[in-house]
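Blinded run. Sample ID left blank on purpose so nobody reads anything into the name before looking at the predicted structure. Input follows.
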Amino acid sequence: MLWRAIGRNAAMYAMPVLIRQPISVLAPHRSVPRLAKLRTCAVAGAMTGPGVEVKVMDKLKDTQHAITTVESCTGGRVADLLTNVGGAAQVYWGSVITYDGSLKSDWGVPACSIKDVGTVTEQVAGEMASAGLQRMMEGYEREKSCSDLAEPKGFICLSTTGFAGGAPRAEWSGTCYLGLAMSSLKEPVVKKVHAAGNSREHRIEHKEYFAEQALQMVMEHL
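Blinded prediction complete.
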């Protein structure tokens, strides 16, 4: 009798099943080599390459900054990269995936911005970052006694909004706006990046590219 995982949360949902094949057929998850391969593929120009998250975490620790992310098209990939690095709890506060416009608005983006200019815009990317920064600063100050952060002297929020998959217009495919808000800056900084290739065929690669470009943006401003 073995246990077979049901869905993505294998640790939480499992059921006993009879496996007639030899145990050796239960090979490691096949997505691992694929993800490793994605880190070095060229989607649009040169990738930032493996290790940008390590550099970001080292820089955050050196400058005593804490970071949070408000992600849309990257689906939490920026947060995933950051938390893959040991000691992340010293500088990483947490993240939210505001995929739908209603959640973006609930998180702090003005509803009028979403209605007037759309979610995949420079304006909304900046407002996502600003809202996330404010939430982190207020939340940390309010619950400081419960925090593992190493007494940050500065705060950073990264945001992503774009078209990793299909887009309403072909020319929008592979477009992403990256927002960066910092406690030391009066206004958020927004950067537009574009990943070449058909979004429907390269969705995962585009998410990877956007996430690494977002982290590279932190390196450029710290």
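Unblinding after everyone has recorded impressions. The two ends are 53 Å apart (CA to CA).
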